[in-house]
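Example record used in the benchmark description.
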Amino acid sequence: MPSTSDFLTYTQWSGLFALFCALLTGISFLFKWGFRFRLVGATGFMIVFTVGLFALSVVPITRTVVPGAARFTTVYDGGSNVATIVVSPTITEPQLTATLQQASSDLFSPGRLGRGREEMVIRARTIVHVKEGLSQPLYLGEVRRSLSDGRDAPLAVKLYPENLAKIAKINQAAKESQV
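Model output (structure tokens):
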């Protein structure tokens, strides 16, 4: 992924090309070339493109990585204040806490609709196979975060220990049946 210094270099080259386009556009008007208005469009595009690259060189593009977080998949996210992720049924309690924090960081956006609420709720669930041909979704925990505060403020992580105990019991039974 390009860094902010890379974008600054791209901005410099793009700015030089925009100046070249502007110079060429001026010359085209001076000599009344037939394609001079096309050059106006190309120059305008290069100016907007250069400004965009400059913005990327000023604002760092970073992604928060929470150590110990497991992989997850977002299965419901309507762009409002509720989202649901799926995690592996073999997840541990510390991994679940880290994964909820990671999901909170990844899914945060200041453009979310609060629908009258100031916080976002992200729930983590897994699918357990109770018996052959029967699967059941099981919610393992949730995290609540502010919709308005983009900084990583203290998150309210709540785990459901009874459901974590259920998946531990099912995983243990599966291990014993394989032996």
